[in-house]
Design goal:
mainly alpha; 54% helix
Length: 238
């Protein structure tokens, strides 16, 4: 009998964003399906196995493999400011996280908020957050990244970035967005409402806008929680 080998990722960064997106699409379309369908998809997508080989795996090995994935997906994913990838041409590129998100341009922010919530465009969001580090900063703690000129050049490459890096970046971005929104709300209230510099009509208009802030805050929190849930165990624990 032919021996079937399982190659299980040892860390969450051994999994690519591409495979995670592929699995999540299957998961969302088949969440209620039983008969180990999603468990099998885990090995198909993350281990590169074919169905005909998976069904030959002894059940105890199959269960152990799923348990290993459970442990991998429970890993913490802190923000990683730099990572490297080697392209098909053999050239290694050092990517750096935006050094100061407080100073991102309007165009960067618009693209981030447009791309970050859709599995089909999450790689484009990563191409906004991470850009090539200037060669003169190679090996140095401080760094400067390339100017933002859209996501076209590096978005496809970001599908091959380590999953842990992508997860850490997105959670960091949402947490920062929540803090910035809260700070903006506090500033507006203090600057205009408490100082009484607005007319009655302007106060009404501002109050209406603040109501929009209050509604948007829970939405940001919900998005963050949803992403964290997706990061956690997505298949049946044995």
């Amino acid at each position: 009998m032919e021996e079937i080998k399982l190659f299980i990722p040892e860390s969450i960064n051994d999994i690519s964003l591409r495979d995670y997106v592929k699995f999540m699409k299957v998961y969302e379309a088949n969440e209620e399906v039983e008969n180990n369908f999603l468990d099998i998809k885990v090995l198909e997508i993350f281990c590169g196995m074919e169905y005909k080989d998976i069904v030959k795996v002894p059940i105890h090995y199959f269960n152990e493999a799923l348990e290993s994935f459970y442990q991998v997906f429970q890993s913490k994913t802190p923000l990683e400011r730099r990572f490297s990838m080697t392209g098909s041409d053999g050239v290694e590129i050092d990517f750096g996280f935006i050094p100061n998100l407080d100073k991102i341009s309007l165009g960067e922010y618009i693209d981030l908020t447009s791309y970050a919530d859709d599995l089909n465009t999450i790689h484009k969001a990563m191409a906004v957050l991470y850009r090539p580090v200037h060669k003169s900063f190679k090996g140095k703690e401080a760094y400067r990244i390339a100017e933002y000129e859209g996501t076209e050049e590096y978005a496809e490459a970001m599908l091959d970035m380590p999953l842990g890096v992508a997860l850490g970046a997105k959670v960091f971005f949402y947490r920062l967005g929540t803090r910035l929104l809260a700070a903006m709300k506090s500033y507006i209230e203090k600057k205009f409402l408490q100082e009484g510099t607005l007319s009655e009509e302007q106060e009404k208009a501002l109050a209406k806008d603040m109501d929009g802030f209050n509604k948007f805050m829970p939405l940001l929190t919900e998005r963050l929680l949803t992403w964290n849930e997706q990061q956690s165990f997505l298949f049946t624990q044995r």
